[in-house]
Design goal:
Elements: H1 3-21, H2 26-41, H3 45-54, H4 62-81, H5 86-103
Helix pairs in contact: 2-5, 3-5, 4-5
Amino acid sequence: MTYAVQVLGGICVIFTLTNYAFQGSHVYIVFIGTLSSAIEALLAVPQFYLNFVRKNTSGLSLMLIIMWCFGDLYKLNYYVFSESPFPLIACSVFQVCTDTAILC
């Protein structure tokens, strides 16, 4: 087995055990939800950094970034109008700001 497969397997085991151990804990559920939203919010940051360092956007599809922005705006709209928890709204705002920075 490769190292990556072993690490992925270990992560799966750890999350399976913690989910089983804390399945009734509201704090754990909120923590996992916030963590997953924060990780998702950071997905476009490496692209922004690469563009910033290169000082150009060569090879980057404009349509891809526009679709990212549209999807993130839709998600933000849903979170705001469904009165979702603040961390979800904050992560969504961060995503829209990152998409806008990449577009600029």
